[in-house]
Amino acid sequence: MVTPLAVDPGHPFPHLANRALCLAVSLRPVAESPLPRATLSLLHVPPTQVAPRFVALPAPADQSQFMLLEDVLRLHLPRLYEGYEILSSHGIRVTRDAEVEIPRGRTEDLMVAIEAGLRERKMGDAVRLQYDPNLPLHRPGHARERARAGPTDLSEEQGFAAFADLAQLYAAVDRPRLKERQLPPHPVAAFERAPDVWSAIRQGDILVHHPYHTFDVVTRLVQEAAAIPRCSPSR
After folding, report:
1. What is the pLDDT of residue 68?
2. What is the pTM assigned to this prediction?
3. Cα separation, 33 vs 15, whole angstroms
4. CA–CA gap between residue 112 and residue 119 (Å, rounded)
5. What residue numbers bound the domain in which 199 lies?
6. Are residues 134 and 196 in the same domain?
7. 218 with 153, same domain?
8. DSSP label at 181?
């Protein structure tokens, strides 16, 4: 799941994936090692689809304790970098431009154009470089240059990055009293009374407010429209 990537004259600065958390590890060679004699290495933290960001620890029944995955990796850095002294390790994270540009004018296959745009998005321009403020002074500029980010794209992040990952704790902690009660969406009375969607619409405008109203009225509209011959695409 983790592969140390050395940065030296023979190994250029690797591509940083969009919104992927990486550890910038400063090294000092102290013994013979099969690894290149580098002073900087990057370690991609496995994404949440591969490993949880919060690793559960043993805890009493009435408590929940977690450890950040990047902190677990820090504890095991000596095993990954044999023959090196670990001087420091700091998190960095690049956010890339996610805009998908569709060619103007007539395109033979819109789906192919969208798929190509999604592939190119992974190599988009860096628009933000988050880094630990304790990162050695020369490292942010080095990382910014290699990530091709502008000077204004640097962003100091104290302690924790990728706040969206906090949502994992919601599912990981089994504490119903700490969670919001599930509220079922309300049916839309105008559609419930009518024999079909079209009859309800003919009676007047209907305001549907999602997610407070059920989304079934939308799927019902599509299903009933598909069953009407004059609404079929072939006609």
Report:
1. 93
2. 0.67
3. 25
4. 11
5. 189-231
6. no
7. no
8. P
